[in-house]
Specification:
Elements: H1 4-9, H2 50-71, E1 110-111, E2 120-127, H3 133-142, E3 147-150, H4 152-155, H5 159-167, E4 171-174, H6 187-205, H7 221-229, E5 235-236, E6 240-242, E7 247-249, E8 261-265, H8 276-289, E9 293-295
Parallel strand pairs: 1-5, 2-3, 2-8, 2-9, 3-4, 6-8
Antiparallel strand pairs: 6-7
Helix pairs in contact: 6-7
The structure holds zinc ion (ZN).
Zinc ion binds next to strand 2.
Protein name: Polysaccharide deacetylase family protein
GO molecular function, one term: hydrolase activity
Region (Disordered): 12-54
Length: 301
């Protein structure tokens, strides 16, 4: 059973939100990384051998993660995801999400979760209106992977911001040129929206996207045909959406499961009552407390 409200909520225009500066100076986070948290212990030189070295480097990696968590106001250290799987899971379209002739036409699979037994979730961030430099520093520092779905009309005033994001290892994906409700458009118009965004991504960021997410999660057969026609291989939707002040769930029992794709948006104080780092804290606090690590979606596709 699906919670339709959660589906409709994706990318919906935000509420009135709090008034305030668009780029407030963060009060809790230092802008520069402090000096390394660990120094060699008193016996550092007395334990040769790779085991000791490995133990020490694991220890200092943990200490660095603990320090980063503290810097960003997280009560728990985010869990480290397992290495990418040697054999990728088989991604299929979720039951009830197929279009006519889906398999026969070889259309990209539409899914909300990745089949895995590992205790991991995937973070995906949509649109691109808010361009908070503190958010980029936070995610680099915490080493939390995520996947972006960008719409040209909100990113075109600052492609450089997303170029920096890409340089830190984030994959930039397709979320149309103007964020329309696709099923209302003709095939040609849908193709313009999706394939036009492919051209923007290729021109600005070097290579076209393999992942496409339809605005609001709404699509029809033409959307998937158009996406396929310009190289899209996967259409990931989401099972949960995290906001700055609450979570919403697709499933009736309101629980996170292994392999779930979580949606959020590039939004700031103009759209909701907090900053991107505030939202990330809400996201990480819950997934870490429930024992989930955040993994990179592309590693499973
Ligand atoms: Zn959107």
């Amino acid at each position: 059973m699906l919670a339709v409200a959660a589906i409709a909520a994706g990318c919906a225009p935000a509420g009135t939100g709090a008034s305030g500066p668009a780029h407030p100076t963060p009060s809790r986070q230092p802008l520069k990384a402090p000096p390394p948290a660990t120094t060699p212990g008193p016996h550092a030189g007395n334990t040769p051998g790779t085991h000791a070295k490995k133990f020490k480097s694991a220890q200092s990696a943990l200490a660095a993660r603990a320090a980063a968590a503290k810097r960003w106001g997280l009560p728990r250290i985010p869990l480290t995801p397992p290495p990418p799987p040697a054999t990728k899971p088989r991604i299929t379209t979720r039951e009830g999400f197929e279009v006519d002739g889906h398999e026969k036409l070889g259309l990209p699979p539409v899914f909300t979760t990745v089949p895995t037994k590992q205790r991991i979730v995937f973070l995906t961030i949509d649109d691109g209106a808010e361009k908070d430099p503190v958010f980029l520093r936070m995610m680099d520092d915490l080493q939390v992977p995520y996947t972006a779905f960008l719409s040209d009309y909100v990113i075109k005033d600052d492609y450089g911001y997303f170029k920096r994001m890409q340089r830190s290892g984030v994959t930039l994906n397709n979320h149309t040129l103007h964020h329309p409700y696709l099923p209302a458009l003709s095939y040609r118009r849908q193709q313009y929206e999706i394939c036009g965004m492919q051209e923007v991504i290729e021109e600005r960021f070097g290579k076209p996207a393999l992942l496409f997410r339809p605005p609001f999660g709404n699509y029809d057969r033409d959307s998937l045909r158009a996406a396929k026609s310009c190289g899209i291989q996967y259409v990931p939707l989401w099972n949960e959406e995290v906001f700055v002040d609450h979570w919403e769930y697709r499933e009736w029992d309101q629980k996170i499961r292994s392999g779930d794709i979580v949606l959020t948006h590039f939004r700031g104080r103009e759209d909701w009552k907090g900053t991107m780092p505030d939202m990330i804290r809400r996201f990480l606090n819950k997934v870490t407390a429930e024992g989930y690590a955040v993994a990179r979606l592309e590693d499973y596709l």
